């Protein structure tokens, strides 16, 4: 089907936009969320939908305590935009939002494994030694017997495999997974009809089961995994089918259901690029937080996109956005193999690659040299005296040249099997499809070194491999000396386009071992902010146990102020001397025990000084001493790296993470008072006056940030993160006019067309009929946003006067327009590329007549006034002609019956109109 809508970019013009495309949430054609006016609280949704005269069907009744409305699906998606606008005008309706689709959470599956090989229990002496817990002080709660008992955590995700022995083994009251539901069913893909049922089982995805284990895995497992709060009850709200997306109407329903089911905390490791807290899903989550239930949401996995790439619903006001740091170990679930050397049998672990036909392979090892520090091992063709390698497994050290090249060199001498040994910690799954090779695998560095030493000593080493898919797996933990404790490179950066501080703080999300569905090997190591968020949810439960409060703001403030900021580390480079910016790590890595026991409380979790146009230099916050004795505080300012959004003053697109430049020019703060003593029970307002860093090029939009340090005489050490932008967001170019152009629907490279190309469109309204495809092509509008825009409008500008519509064209913002193409305008757009193939349909449901047109694109500047033309960045496409195929009744009958004859022709009248227009003047 030719999808006419705001599809995510298929191919982007720059590599940055390429990275963005997959995450730009798509609009679902004809589907809308309607929010009723508050006084219509008890209205009957069926009656409401009934009054729409059969034009729409009910997608989902959304009548909840905190949100009253419905989502509806217009049967005629062609005219939906117009119909929705009419619905929005009804007195009973407060607002109408399009349904957007969010993808299944993206995360990296590093390895999976069952529990066939019993491991040494890692809970030495009964104490918690799980590394993500040691990093966040969660182990201290567990060692003290605090497990989140009595707290209910709603998990909005892919469901939970509650039959997993480490997740309680059952579903319902009395079970670990004690409540929840399936809102969608297995076959749901985001576009089809959800088939809800009562069973939130996760058999086919795994994401939600991994998340659940991070919160509450029971210690009865062979890998020493334990949830942060294994005494809580979990609610599983399944919003994804086995594959595909979820609409925000389902997410809004799931949040409200989790809220009404009495969840004390709601966690969701779901998101999509946004940067706007006004997004409807984010707005609903904000409302739940306002009503007293903390909502933690993963910050997003688009770190590579650089600064200003916040994700919804994490970017909502009062929603807690959780960033990721890497684990201090890299666990791996390795397949179990054995080898024989000097008459002894030893075991080793490996990770199968592609190809991976290792079943029953038992061969001696051979290696080209014994140099265990050779970076270019196996990169050169093997010497002439190399034996026939078909009877060996070739052992090669990882490094320098590609895996494929190394395998090719071995295959040139007859090899069929290659094992790589790693040159860093852990293992990875190697892909090296080379003709002649049937198995590749990787072993950890120490295994490879031991084998080389044995070969060098003249021993024969015979390796017995196994099918990596079915071999028993065991857990190997490698120290993560490279990135352990630093912000994960994938963690998305804030702030929002309106300078809300995002994310709030970080927990370990990179290299996390947890439970996985039994159908998918039971355990897995995954990476993503999806893995960070549930740990934060568990920590909220622990703090609720200790402090007795469930107030979202109190707990967020405690976690932010006690978190530990870390230095900035660029991937593959040693850490800089600068603290990582607040837009990357928020308050830093949470320290849960300190948060639970802090007696000094702050009124805020962060401060924003906004940008230069809206500079709010004076920000107040309150420090309260809730302890039993008086404390003397001294406050200071510790700057974090100032991140330049753009690489140069003329650039309009933010640089990718690899090119983010940090400066040590910090903001200076005047803190008043900077030292004072508070008696027990007293509080004080502290006033902070910021001076943005001087001498930085405002055109590069420097985002400065740092921490107000608050050191108490009781040895408390708190910090309050702040940020601001030393430039004008309103002045930033939002529309990349060079990459906003007209292309062809079939050109996946988005090449620009020359002026005056004629597009032959399918008969009006039949663009989805594939039988027209070979004879038609649609104009494709490519809009590239350099920065986010709250509103994009597109005008269809007639360059002819031969149609009534053209003669009656209105003038809006100085351009003559027939109106906007269907689906426009679009609101709250992230930066990146959007593509739109136009079948001639306008937002009012009519079709633009055949003729010569151009499209005028207007993107509202950040903080711009939508009623003023000058507040938009504008671009126009080249002129292009459209005409429609026209079929008569007989032709239509033939087409529908599948008989290929009577092809429709372009109507003569259209040609005539074009001849007229050639002399027309506009
Ligand atoms: C376990 O933790 C407790 C509390 O921190 C500590 O007193 C005890 O020594 C620890 N036991 C072991 C074996 O480490
Ligand atoms: C091993 O390889 C390293 C790195 O290429 C090189 O510096 C060293 O000289 C080599 N050692 C031997 C014994 O060839
Ligand atoms: C920055 O200022 C604008 C304009 O007043 C406002 O809309 C926005 O909310 C402000 N941002 C923050 C974080 O206060
Ligand atoms: C900040 O606090 C001071 C007193 O400490 C007060 O005069 C001022 O009005 C406050 N400013 C804001 C923005 O609340
Ligand atoms: C194509 O559109 C027609 C109406 O124009 C509709 O009846 C039909 O179901 C659509 N087909 C698909 C595959 O969407
Ligand atoms: C469209 O063209 C392709 C390639 O020329 C051909 O294989 C296909 O059958 C055509 N489809 C229709 C519906 O005519
Ligand atoms: C496109 O067509 C219009 C109207 O016929 C004409 O005025 C214009 O010069 C043409 N442009 C180009 C580049 O050929």
From TrEMBL:
Residues 608-723 form the C5a peptidase/Subtilisin-like protease SBT2-like Fn3-like domain. Residues 906-922 have a biased composition (Basic and acidic residues). InterPro entries: C5a/SBT2-like_Fn3 (IPR010435), Ig-like_fold (IPR013783), PA_dom_sf (IPR046450), PA_domain (IPR003137), Peptidase_S8/S53_dom (IPR000209), Peptidase_S8/S53_dom_sf (IPR036852), Peptidase_S8_Asp-AS (IPR023827), Peptidase_S8_His-AS (IPR022398). Belongs to the peptidase S8 family. This is Protease. The keyword Hydrolase applies. Residues 148-565 form the Peptidase S8/S53 domain. Residues 1-19 form the signal peptide. Residues 899-922 are annotated as: Disordered. The lineage of its organism: Eukaryota, Fungi, Dikarya, Ascomycota, Pezizomycotina. Keywords: Cell wall, Hydrolase, Protease, Secreted, Serine protease, Signal. CDD domains: PA_PoS1_like, Peptidases_S8_5. Residues 371-429 form the PA domain. One of its GO terms (molecular function) is serine-type endopeptidase activity. PANTHER family: PEPTIDASE S8 (PTHR43806), SERIN ENDOPEPTIDASE (PTHR43806:SF66). Pfam families: fn3_5 (PF06280), PA (PF02225), Peptidase_S8 (PF00082). The active site is at residues 157, 207, 530. It comes from the Eukaryota. One of its GO terms (biological process) is proteolysis. GO terms for cellular component: membrane.
């Amino acid at each position: 089907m030719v999808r006419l809508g705001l599809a995510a970019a298929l191919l982007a013009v720059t590599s940055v936009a390429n990275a963005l495309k997959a995450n730009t949430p798509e609009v679902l054609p004809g589907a809308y969320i309607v929010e009723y006016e508050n006084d219509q609280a008890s209205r009957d949704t069926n009656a409401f939908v009934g009054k729409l005269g059969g034009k729409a069907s009910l997608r989902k009744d959304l009548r909840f305590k905190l949100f009253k409305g419905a989502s509806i699906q217009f049967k005629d998606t062609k005219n939906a935009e117009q119909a929705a606008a009419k619905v929005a005008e009804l007195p009973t309706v407060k607002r109408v939002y399009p349904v957007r689709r969010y993808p299944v959470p993206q995360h990296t599956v590093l390895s999976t494994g069952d529990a066939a090989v019993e491991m040494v229990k890692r809970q030495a002496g009964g104490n918690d030694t799980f590394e993500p817990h040691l990093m966040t002080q969660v182990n201290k709660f567990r060692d003290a017997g605090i497990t989140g008992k009595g707290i209910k955590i709603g998990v909005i995700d892919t469901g939970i495999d509650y039959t997993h022995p480490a997740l309680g083994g059952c579903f319902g009251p009395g079970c670990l997974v004690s409540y929840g539901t399936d809102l969608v069913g297995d076959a749901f893909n985001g576009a089809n009809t959800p088939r809800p049922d009562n069973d939130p089982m996760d058999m086919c995805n795994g994401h939600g089961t991994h998340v659940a284990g991070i919160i509450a895995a029971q210690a009865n497992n062979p890998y020493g995994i334990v949830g942060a709060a294994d005494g809580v009850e979990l609610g599983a709200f399944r919003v994804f089918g086995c594959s595909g997306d979820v609409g925000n109407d389902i997410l809004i329903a799931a949040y409200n259901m989790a809220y009404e089911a009495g969840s004390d905390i709601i966690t969701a490791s779901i998101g999509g690029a946004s940067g706007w807290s006004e997004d409807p899903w984010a707005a609903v989550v904000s409302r739940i937080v306002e009503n007293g239930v903390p909502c933690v949401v993963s910050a997003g996995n688009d770190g590579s996109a650089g600064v200003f790439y916040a994700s919804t619903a994490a970017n909502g006001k009062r929603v807690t956005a959780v960033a990721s740091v890497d684990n201090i170990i890299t666990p791996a679930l390795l397949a179990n193999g054995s080898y024989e050397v000097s008459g002894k049998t030893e075991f080793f672990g490996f990770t199968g690659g592609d190809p991976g036909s290792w079943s029953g392979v038992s061969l001696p090892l051979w290696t080209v040299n014994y140099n265990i520090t050779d970076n270019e091992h196996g990169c050169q063709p093997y010497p002439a005296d190399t034996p026939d390698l078909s009877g060996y497994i070739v052992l090669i050290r990882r490094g320098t040249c590609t895996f494929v090249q190394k395998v090719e060199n071995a295959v040139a001498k007859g090899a069929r099997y290659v094992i790589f040994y790693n040159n860093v910690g852990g293992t990875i799954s190697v892909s090296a499809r080379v003709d002649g090779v049937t198995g590749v695998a990787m072993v950890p560095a120490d295994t490879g070194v031991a084998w080389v030493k044995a070969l060098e000593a003249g021993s024969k080493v015979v390796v017995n491999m196994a099918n990596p898919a079915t071999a028993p797996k065991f857990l190997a933990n490698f120290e993560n000396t490279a990135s352990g404790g630093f912000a994960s490179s994938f963690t998305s950066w804030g702030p929002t386009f309106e300078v809300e501080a995002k994310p709030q703080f970080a927990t370990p999300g990179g290299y996390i071992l947890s439970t996985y569905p039994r159908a998918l090997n039971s355990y897995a190591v995954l990476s993503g902010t999806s893995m960070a968020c549930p740990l934060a949810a568990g920590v909220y439960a622990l703090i609720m146990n200790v402090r007795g409060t469930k107030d979202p703001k109190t707990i967020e403030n405690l976690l932010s102020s006690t978190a530990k900021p870390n230095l900035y580390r660029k991937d593959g480079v040693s850490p800089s001397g600068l603290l990582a910016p607040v837009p990357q790590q928020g308050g830093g890595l949470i320290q849960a025990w300190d948060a639970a026991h802090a007696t000094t409380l702050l009124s805020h979790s962060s401060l924003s000084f906004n940008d230069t146009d809206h500079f709010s230099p004076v920000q107040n916050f309150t420090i309260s001493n809730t302890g039993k004795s008086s404390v003397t505080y001294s406050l200071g300012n510790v700057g974090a790296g100032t991140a330049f959004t753009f690489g140069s003053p003329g650039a309009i697109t933010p640089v990718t993470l690899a090119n983010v430049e940090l400066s040590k020019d910090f903001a200076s703060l005047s803190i008043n008072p900077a030292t004072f003593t508070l008696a027990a029970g007293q509080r004080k307002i502290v006033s902070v006056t910021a001076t943005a860093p001087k001498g930085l090029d405002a055109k590069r939009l420097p985002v400065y940030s740092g921490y107000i340090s608050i050191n108490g005489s009781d040895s408390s050490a708190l910090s309050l993160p702040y940020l601001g932008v030393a430039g004008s967001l309103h002045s930033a170019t939002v529309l990349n006019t060079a990459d906003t152009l007209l292309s062809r629907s079939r050109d996946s490279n988005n090449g620009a067309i020359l002026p005056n190309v004629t597009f032959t469109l399918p008969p009006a309204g039949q663009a989805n009929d594939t039988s027209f495809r070979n004879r038609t092509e649609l104009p494709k509008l490519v809009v590239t946003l350099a920065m986010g825009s709250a509103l994009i409008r597109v005008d269809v500008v007639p360059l002819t006067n031969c149609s009534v519509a053209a003669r009656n064209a209105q003038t809006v913002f100085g351009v003559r327009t027939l109106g906007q193409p269907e689906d426009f305008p679009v609101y709250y757009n992230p930066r990146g590329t959007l593509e739109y193939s136009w079948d001639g349909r306008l937002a009012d449901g009519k079709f633009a007549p055949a003729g010569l047109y151009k499209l005028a694109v207007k993107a509202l500047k950040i903080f711009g006034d939508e009623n003023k033309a000058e507040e938009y960045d504008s671009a126009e496409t080249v002129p292009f002609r459209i005409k429609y195929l026209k079929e008569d009744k007989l032709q239509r009958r033939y087409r529908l019956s599948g008989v290929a004859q009577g092809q429709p022709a372009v109507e003569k009248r259209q040609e005539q109109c074009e001849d007229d227009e050639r002399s027309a003047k506009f």
